[in-house]
């Protein structure tokens, strides 16, 4: 019974890391698209914020 619990927790952790990776990549892609098509200082701040969030999410997903 204990082994089943541990295996289930490992699977949940793996799925969570995969989700974090997908979200991180999506945020970086959105930041790149905004950089290419958006103009203005406000857009630049948003691009930087999305890029940092995306890279952080990717780093966290790869850590585990």
Give a structural overview.
Helix content is 92%, strand content 0%. The protein is mainly alpha-helical and 64 residues long. Helix 1 packs antiparallel against helix 2. The longest helix has 36 residues. The protein is rod-shaped and about 55 Å long.
**Beta-strand content estimate:** under 5%
How many domains? 1
Number of helices: 2
Largest sheet: none
The run of helices and strands is HH
Write down how many β-strands occur, each being a DSSP E stretch of 2 or more residues. 0
Q: What's the average pLDDT?
A: 83
- Low-confidence sequence ranges: none
Distance between the termini: 24 Å
Quaternary class: single chain
Silhouette: rod-shaped
User: Which structural category do the helix and sheet elements fall into?
Assistant: mainly alpha
What is the CA-based Rg, rounded?
16 Å
Work out the helicity level.
over 70%
Brief write-up:
The protein is mainly alpha-helical.
Q: What is this structure's SSE topology?
A:
Layout: H1 2-37, H2 41-63
Helix pairs in contact: 1-2
Relevant terms:
64 residues, mainly alpha, rod-shaped
């Amino acid at each position: 019974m204990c082994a089943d619990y541990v295996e289930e927790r490992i699977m949940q952790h793996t799925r969570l890391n995969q989700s974090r990776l997908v979200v991180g990549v999506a945020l970086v892609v959105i930041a790149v698209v905004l950089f290419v098509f958006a103009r203005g200082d406000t857009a630049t701040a948003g691009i930087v914020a999305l890029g940092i969030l995306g890279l952080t999410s990717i780093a966290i997903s790869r850590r585990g």
